[in-house]
Amino acid sequence: xxxxxxxxxLIDLTHTLTPEIPSWSGGCGFxxxxxxxxxxxxxxxxxxxxxxxxxxxxxxHIDAPSHCIPGGKNIDQLSLDKLLAPxxxxxxxxxxHEKYTVTPQDILDFEQQHGAISPHSFVIIYTGWERFWGQxxxxxxxxxxxxxxxxxxxxLLERNVAGLGIDTLSPDRPxxxxxxxxxxxxxxxxxxxxxxxxxxxxxxxxxxLALPLKTQGGTEAPARLVGLYSSDFKxxxxxxxxxxxxx
Length: 247
Hints:
Elements (H helix, E strand, L loop, with lengths): L7 E5 L18 E6 L12 E5 L7 E3 L16 H4 E8 L9 E2 L1 H11 L7 E5 L9 H5 L6 E2 L1 H9 L4 E4 L12 H8 L3 E4 L12 E7 L7 E11 L3 H7 L7
Parallel strand pairs: 5-7, 6-8, 7-9, 9-10
Antiparallel strand pairs: 1-12, 2-3, 4-10, 4-12, 5-11, 11-12
Helix pairs in contact: 2-4, 4-5
């Protein structure tokens, strides 16, 4: 089979939607129903037709500015040239716990080790919390999970990032009052929650493409988040390819 001569390898950074996945409220609201099955189809070519019912903010999904900013951009107004972005993956998993808050020092330490975060980058915070994805109650944990601090979000905005991603339900814990949502979305950026497999990406040098369902007036939408890395990072990917994937 002839392969497309595409200069990037792809990494799927998206959780699969099922009725059992973790969610903010404890019930994700996802249903996939068969409305017409092969045996009931009267045409010569048989079809299975499905209907989806889901909450907008479940699984790996994007928050548009309008999610908490009146008059902010909606999902269908997000620009593709912002949804395709250089990617930085900041790994705090060795020190993160359910009450951990990412600080500016975490970002500065990352830059000292790997180099500066370039403008218009999509920054993923990898906390390691995704290890609980298959345990919805533990993942939700009464809304106690690693998050991002206000000062860290301010520093990322100084770097003029395109957006912020994290492998938890939110970059904010409700007890903190949602300052990161207000800052990031208030600056016209976007947030991706429940990022999967971020450690499959190199710290710097790759790209992400975030493609939400393009819903008119949507404030949130499930998305397919894809990482792209060039042949320069084949050795990196080979190095981490043995890392356990979520089931």
